[in-house]
Design brief:
The chain is an alpha/beta fold. The chain contains 5 helices and 11 strands. Strands 1, 2, 3, 4, 5, 6, 7, 8, 9, 10 and 11 form an 11-stranded mixed beta sheet that branches. Helix 2 crosses helix 5. The longest helix is centred in the C-terminal third of the chain and has 26 residues. The radius of gyration is 17 Å and the shape is globular. It binds hypoxanthine. The site of hypoxanthine has 12 residues, from strand 6, strand 10 and strand 11.
């Protein structure tokens, strides 16, 4: 079963026919909100808003372990995670949508594994390719079917937040090879891998990162969130097409 994790600005999916909301408890605590079970075009999907339904949980306080484990308990095998980013590379201006293929993790102090030697024995998962290429390809295909442009690569730098970065920090991330920056990509992707869940990210670009383009001297995050809404309409369309093409019973297509 597919799950969609919604990020900033995406606290619900309008196209979703909601069947039930389920409070799930996990050994790691409670997820950000009750899981929303529903259907898009007859295909089953679970939706979870990462920051909670009222967007009250900041990136560093999201209980990533509970979120991913709760989905795992429901039999989720694939996650398409929407995660807003700032564009570092010039081509990632506001309004673009990227499907990153790599991650660099700069977060700290987050509960980032199930294999902590306490609840489970230590284990070192392979993370050479952090995103599922098959799921990325399905998302890219869905986008192309409805003529939505996506950039099907990119290196996601996961920063700690909640503050935005300095221009010098963005310079450093760029030297490291990052092309976009966000605060929620990790440990979410690694936790999904630990549980054997295929994971891909859909990253709407909300702004140029600090010191880039029109963010040369400052970023007004309120403006950024306003701009994001139009891009999120396109993200929803891509998810709708993804469901129609790949997750719906044939007779409902
Ligand atoms: N930095 C980090 N996270 C973000 C940004 C940014 O510029 N924009 C949206 N999420």
């Amino acid at each position: 079963m597919l799950a969609i994790i919604g990020g900033t600005g995406l606290t619900e999916l309008e196209d979703l026919r909601v069947n039930k909301r389920v409070i799930v408890r996990t050994p790691y605590g409670e997820p950000s909100q009750p899981l929303i079970f529903g259907e898009i075009c007859g295909g089953e999907v679970i939706f979870l808003a990462r920051h909670g339904s009222g967007h009250t949980i900041p990136p560093h306080e999201v209980n990533y372990r509970a979120n991913i484990y709760a989905l795992h308990l429901q039999g989720v095998t694939e996650i398409a995670a929407v995660a807003t980013v700032g564009g570092i590379h010039q081509e990632l201006s506001s309004g673009m949508i990227a499907l990153p293929h790599q991650i660099i993790d700069y977060t700290h102090g987050r509960q980032n594994t199930y294999y902590d030697g306490i609840s489970n024995p230590v284990k070192h998962i392979d993370f050479t390719e952090p995103y599922c290429n098959k799921l990325r390809a399905k998302i890219a295909q869905a986008a192309s079917e409805i003529d939505e442009e996506v950039i099907n690569y990119g290196v996601y730098a996961a920063t700690q937040g909640p503050r935005l970065e300095t221009a010098a920090e963005i310079d450093r991330l760029e030297r490291d090879g990052a092309t976009m920056v966000g605060m929620t990509g990790m440990p979410e992707a690694a936790l999904a891998r630990e549980l054997g869940i295929s994971y891909a990210a859909i990253c709407p670009v909300a702004n140029y990162a600090a010191g880039r383009g029109d963010s040369l001297h400052a970023i007004n995050y309120e403006d950024v969130v306003l701009n994001l809404n139009q891009t999120l309409v396109r993200v929803r369309n891509i998810i709708g097409q993804l469901m129609t093409q790949h997750y719906c019973p044939v007779d409902t297509k």
